[in-house]
Design brief:
Oligomer: homodimer
Order of helices and strands of chain A: HHHHEHEHEHEEHEHEHEHEHEHEE
Protein name (chains A, B): LacI family transcriptional regulator
Largest sheet of chain A: 6 strands, parallel
Strand order of the largest sheet of chain A: 2-1-3-4-5-11
Distance between the termini of chain A: 83 Å
Number of domains of chain A: 3
Radius of gyration of chain A: 26 Å
InterPro entries (chains A, B): HTH_LacI, LacI/GalR-like_sensor, Lambda_DNA-bd_dom_sf, Peripla_BP_I
Helix content of chain A: 40-55%
Pfam families (chains A, B): LacI, Peripla_BP_3
Keywords (chains A, B): DNA-binding, Transcription, Transcription regulation
CATH topology of the largest domain in chain A: Rossmann fold
Number of strands of chain A: 12
Structural class of chain A: alpha/beta
GO molecular function (chains A, B): DNA-binding transcription factor activity; transcription cis-regulatory region binding
CATH architecture of the largest domain in chain A: 3-Layer(aba) Sandwich
Number of helices of chain A: 13
CATH superfamily of the largest domain in chain A: Response regulator
Shape of chain A: elongated
Chain lengths: 339, 339
Amino acid sequence: MVAQHSGVSPQTVSNALNSPDLLAPETLERVRRSIEKLDYRPHQAARSLRTKSSRLIGFEIQLTAFGVFGPVMANFLHALSESANEAGYGILLFAAPAGGEEETDRYAELLRERSVDAFILTNTYRGDRRPGLLRKRGIPFVAFGRWSARDMEDWVDVDGAHGTAAAVDHLAGLGHRKIAFLGWPRGSGVGDDRERGWREAMLRHQLSVRGLRVSATDDVDAARKAVEGLFPAGVTAVVAASDALALGCYRALRDSSRMPGRDVAVVGFDDSAAARLHSPDLSSVRQPLREAGRSCVQLLLARINEPLREPEQILLRPELIVRKSAASVIANRPARPGI
Amino acid sequence: MVAQHSGVSPQTVSNALNSPDLLAPETLERVRRSIEKLDYRPHQAARSLRTKSSRLIGFEIQLTAFGVFGPVMANFLHALSESANEAGYGILLFAAPAGGEEETDRYAELLRERSVDAFILTNTYRGDRRPGLLRKRGIPFVAFGRWSARDMEDWVDVDGAHGTAAAVDHLAGLGHRKIAFLGWPRGSGVGDDRERGWREAMLRHQLSVRGLRVSATDDVDAARKAVEGLFPAGVTAVVAASDALALGCYRALRDSSRMPGRDVAVVGFDDSAAARLHSPDLSSVRQPLREAGRSCVQLLLARINEPLREPEQILLRPELIVRKSAASVIANRPARPGI
């Protein structure tokens, strides 16, 4: 229909869509006007067979991730879908058995049967088989999370260290000196990064970190036990690696008749729904997840369009949201700062 | 390759895949063995052009929904993907401007360009244009949520009234008589259903509901204000339409030096992550969202395979999770029940 309308051959219309450089500008313009007038959209299945592109981006939904990621995942997924859709791509959501060969088999199946053009990977880890498979097949991918990524890869991540450092800066400004860090057991990229931000900021403020680092699994009760010794030792503020850990801190404070926000300042991480539901409201570090979703699609499209471009990495800054749990000047502030 | 291997024509192979009834059983068996031996999988784009089926199920991700649905959506989406994948279908995630013509245009575009086979709709509402469009085009869909569905449609929902009734049964069993309901403003299908469960259970236990129904928007602070008058009036238990409302109740209790779980029992709804992070742990009604995801796919596949079948509806029962906020026998239990 488009060919007839613009008085060219069907091959010329196909070239206009897929290799516009091959046409004379005036011919291209004529075909474009006809396409617009007829509201012609090539059917994706027909285009897939011709161009071997499905315009699908694969995204594996994982249940294991939801401890950390769950409550806020919706924002990420919505931004991802919106950005992909704007560029004419769809997000193909799929489940796979996490880890091991069965997982990579699933990726291979999607490449074979659906010609998925590219993937966005979350929760990559050391020993993850997925990046290797995709590299071998020359399939573009972007990792959200940089801990298993190589320098030669595209990734998007949130600067966790910046978030915990911002918390320390804020607390030091309120007069706190003994600022503890409540993290997860060492060994996770995300957790170690958040600890590093605290440690470096403490040094910058010339504050000692000795005895101020405690850890627990991401569980309220484990966190409660991990921090209870800190308060008799004079700790007046706690920066936690997650909101769940921070709320364990609330419990320990209440158990010892201390009041979060008044007697001891508490800052969490992730700004989950739970943070705002607590009393006092929990201060927390908010990750820019909509921006992260958009950035993942942006890097992926750049890679699809230019497979040999330099790898690009985007590190986004999180934002400290100050609420009542860390809003007031320290109660037992020493007469002279630093003492 | 398959045709050569099994000594039949390519058309016969195509029939074996798409219209197996046309073949003699022994021929079908021969082709099947070859397919298995060669590990042949038809490419989806080729199959789409032939059968006009993309084996894609569309799912619109909405941000508006996340107040209620967000924290637990991950479970629903994972179950949806897993069930669809097992049946050879993919979930196409997409964003659309909520409501109005732009939204239905997006659905029409996905039908035109991607030949999406079917849709799962969430957050349907009275006046929703999507079901009408899909009915007109003869596109199978299943609604998760029954409030705008017609009797002639397939839907899956969770029996909210059963959940709040279970909460009343439990509280009445502990000796509570003045059990209030803290709901949203009237007019939402979901909210009114949860209220109905409370009301009917109260009547069943021969308890008065007079003055025991209060409402607030889904916000901790609005909820706190809505309930503060209840406790001086002798209310000893509150059933809330959401966890956020229930946690507003915690605030009101603390403000008046009452202790949730000891002085007044509180039950929420949704069993969000926040429920377990609070002290005392919040009792809450848990929706079976994995089962809901699986049921949506099950109904959709049945409809795709048999377009003229009777409409089917699946109403799932939620489960009351009893935690410390509603675990103990009422403190000021009257000497004789009913007084």
